[in-house]
Predict the structure.
Amino acid sequence: MIASLRTKQPVVHCITNHVVSNFQANGLLALGASPIMGDAPEEAEELALLADALSLNIGTLNKVTLNSMIVAGKTANSKGIPVVLDPVGAGATSFRLTAIHQLLEEVDITVLRCNAGELAAIAGADWQAKGVDAGQGNVDVNEMALQIARKYKLIVAVTGETDIVTNGEAIEKIPYGTPLMSSVTGMGCLLSSVVAAFLAVSLVEPMVATTEALRFYALCGEKASEISQRPGSFQFAFLDELASTEQGIDNEPIRLEEDVIWKL
Amino acid sequence: MIASLRTKQPVVHCITNHVVSNFQANGLLALGASPIMGDAPEEAEELALLADALSLNIGTLNKVTLNSMIVAGKTANSKGIPVVLDPVGAGATSFRLTAIHQLLEEVDITVLRCNAGELAAIAGADWQAKGVDAGQGNVDVNEMALQIARKYKLIVAVTGETDIVTNGEAIEKIPYGTPLMSSVTGMGCLLSSVVAAFLAVSLVEPMVATTEALRFYALCGEKASEISQRPGSFQFAFLDELASTEQGIDNEPIRLEEDVIWKL
Amino acid sequence: MIASLRTKQPVVHCITNHVVSNFQANGLLALGASPIMGDAPEEAEELALLADALSLNIGTLNKVTLNSMIVAGKTANSKGIPVVLDPVGAGATSFRLTAIHQLLEEVDITVLRCNAGELAAIAGADWQAKGVDAGQGNVDVNEMALQIARKYKLIVAVTGETDIVTNGEAIEKIPYGTPLMSSVTGMGCLLSSVVAAFLAVSLVEPMVATTEALRFYALCGEKASEISQRPGSFQFAFLDELASTEQGIDNEPIRLEEDVIWKL
């Protein structure tokens, strides 16, 4: 799938936060996608019309960019391109949680990409987040993911020590990656747009595309951690891996494996 | 010219997009210039008054920053400092194209620094852009650049496989650089402010200053590509080269060469 | 102190400029802190309530983020967490200077972290700044710092060739660091939030915490300069050092040394 992504070079429209916008654009370019980062309501519709996928991220949300997201989201829906939502720090403030619910109601989201703490906030579950980081809790993450996937009819991708992807029926687990990935700001944000780029080249199988995106990303993380174990240099080793990792997918497809899927 | 730039350390006021603002500021610092990045209308005039050059970039434009650009641009004009406009994604939305034409009409732009797709959008020519990237078309880029340079009485610098610089009379070609430069977000944006910094130390010869800026930049790209061929590490190797490349200009001036200029 | 910081992982709420927000978040993560970067007035109060320290930076200030800063600052005060103010380019515009005075009056600032030019602007002293950089002047920086510390009842930390920290009574001098630190944008901005993180784990001794933060930071700079003398690679070597430098503080505390304190 990465090979066809690099051939197609899908245009990914990102409405994202100013903390990670550079890293996200560089990550998409390294991957082989073509980022558009405009976030003004004045051009949200036209930019979404140019795109092959839309990636929404509420990391430094305000009323203006929320408006852009609604407009771009509806445009993406009418055009039939995938929409990924990254609900950064979902439980941190009522403004964020309200915005997420508005987005989930007014826009047809294809994939919700989050961490366990954000998922718990959306589900209204008991969870102790750490600022905008994942934190910890006693809720069953698999169960929460399944519920949210069914409730909103979308794919939920929860990253953590073991990533999970579910469409509300099957759950795929991705036990790869490295803890170093949480030492770089925007690793989750960039992943969400990488998922958008993978969806753009395989929208007919969004569950497969999402799972492959997470596997590819985790593999890049593991390879970069062989270059450096320190966050500054790891960050750029990771961008390098996004550009050069082949994953051999076209020869030997990494697909949903029977042993890690369990039907419900 | 780079030596006098490092001695004078010109203050370059950048009103730019949040995707590249960090890279642009770091690039200017590495070069030896002194960046000011404030973009609020509340201080646009005062910041422009402190500057030796103004660099405008519409990458994540909105109504507020457009207003800042107009105010800063008029201040720069009244003060007689150079103004560089980078019309990022010119053809992507009507908001951008309208803003560019407003800037071209209300502000005396010294150099328009763009890619072929953006130039085509400004010229109203038939061109297929790829999101906000250059894309391709059948129009003669040289001819377009000459027309725009004459129409708006400015210098047009179009980057691509071979860069061109024209004042509407002569065309200088710069066949240097590396394709890696398009794998890092903001390489064009940073170039536009590097042009502004070069203009600040040689405003009497803007055509020469622009051409030297593009040559210097392309040379830094080539040198960085000898350090790394991968986008993450290339990005920082490039900043390193901006800081250390001497170009031997003072000993052996790189100036407009007769053989690559053709009078019209 | 760095060991207890890494154990406690304090949440630092940063309302900062878009040029350095990525570097600041990555620096805090590398250090072992947990950054929150939301800057909208809609959530300023709730985010500050989640935080262990607040870091305010006016680098690309506008009316909206100034409002966020006031709200978050008052919330931090009522909660009793430390507040660090970084008055970037204080003397550059009247908008900045007015905003700084408003913040100093309406919010109880714990530490003012600035360069000599910014301090002079706040003090109303005669000084020639270079854009938003420090510049130079004939005023006695020690005397200015003492005056401002007494006037606003806060700690003043002025960075430069030799850093100074004063609470209006004692002055601590930190003659470490490397000139390379001024070749990377946001080094001062990140330092301000590092001070906030140190304060969060030692609020009872803010003078000690601030001094240790500056020493730790300068030490990381010196160590990174042994990795690279060029600004691109230095930047990431510096993040690496923030993550790995131990400083042996817990075994052999780096505290206010008698020989560098002089009582007034």
Notes: The beta strands of chain B are 11-15, 34-36, 53-57, 83-86, 111-115, 128-130, 133-136, 155-159, 163-166, 171-174. Residues 14 and 126 of chain B are 31 Å apart (CA to CA).
